[in-house]
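Tutorial, part two.
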Amino acid sequence: MLSVSAATRDSASKLAVIAGEQMLTFAQLSVQVQQLAEKINKLVSSRRQPVAFVAKPSLDSLLLFYALLELGQSALPLNPRLLTSDHRAMIEQAGATELSLVEGQLGVTGKASFTIEGNELQSSAVLVATSGSTGRAKIANLSKKALVAAAEASADRLGWMDDDRWLLSLSLCHIGGLSIATRCLLARHPVVLGEPRGDAAELTRLIDRHDITLVSLVSTQLHRLLAGDFDLHRTKLRILLVGGMHADPWLIAAARTRGIPVLATYGMTETASQIATQLPSDLRSLIGPCHDVGPALSQLELKIINDEIVVRGPMLFDGYVGEIAEVDSMRGPNTTGLPLRHGWFHTGDWGRLDGSGRLTVVGRASDRIVTGGENVAPAEVELVLETIPAIERACVFGVPEAVKGEQVAAAIILREGFVLDLVEFERQVSERLASFKRPRALAIMTEFAVTATGKLDRASTARNAMPQLQIMEHRRST
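Running the prediction step on this input gives:
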């Protein structure tokens, strides 16, 4: 069961949490969680009202999350990097009460003007904001059943070893971090708290000091790890998951060359994390860059409809809180808009499956560039640009063009000590990309905008790059 008290009944003396110098067994964790649950009960009268809290990378935040799971009360973890006004908007959107835990003192710090009526959140375990960078946040409603199904499917793919410890180096306000907390709780294994924004040296120190065997990172963190030339050979690390919109196959190849056991994974908030993940056996069998993210996890059906990735399974969310309710013929009333159709979730991502069922993620359908009637996936172009030795990172986007509607543009970050040879750039791009997919404008930048989760913020990067764009001349394609 996904419960600290249940874990204590069968694993009381096992280590549950490592936070700095503190080490808690499940029995010790249970005492703190139960005390906190009693305080929450006194402050929040309705079980239907979600409880929001600023999810800092701390033991207090983890304790709040576990206490709410224990109570069956819906948790709404708030991103500490957002403004207070953003927090207020989410609290109001979800009809939540906000609590804060400071030096053992629990108090109410905010409250929505209404409570959600009916059964909309009856089975809700956690409400998680999706990782979009603009507009009103979508808040996905995930049940305990979905969290358990996702944890079991992850365990089926990666396995658990007796001495496994998972480093929580992703934020608890997003599904990537929350899923580590739920996987470890369900499997009765220790979770080790790290700093999501910590540097590569601190990450390496934690992995070595606490005998970490499992860790999840975003691409930005792995970039920093490789750039610092940190040695993980003598550690017990057996799997390092790299997620995000798409995992750079060249980055993964570079990591594996250095002996880092990297597996690419693809997931979403709406599926309680992983959808597809490379197999542990791929660490031995795949040499060089690999563009796919492996096959779908167990219990999850995956197919491609009109180039879009579509999934179905018990780890699916129950809709977006606050959205207009629709009736899905396979699932009954829910709070989602368009994505759930006949029990299938339409991810909004482009992808393709090979003959063995391995998934390649091409990019976001919403990022699509339409130029002269042709569709261009920015991620496909970015992967090509990042094979050019001088280019460390690329961000591709569309800019208005009078005749074709849009033209392809790219912002690039050069590797230290390199300059861009435009002739060689043109040669490599023309060999790898159809004419309509090639960048017609280029901007050289020193950094890209990122979202709160560390993913590329394409829209903001495009806005920042616009004043620096230089039109490129292309020979007519024959």
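The chain has two domains: 4-359, 368-471. In part three we will examine how such features are distributed along the chain.
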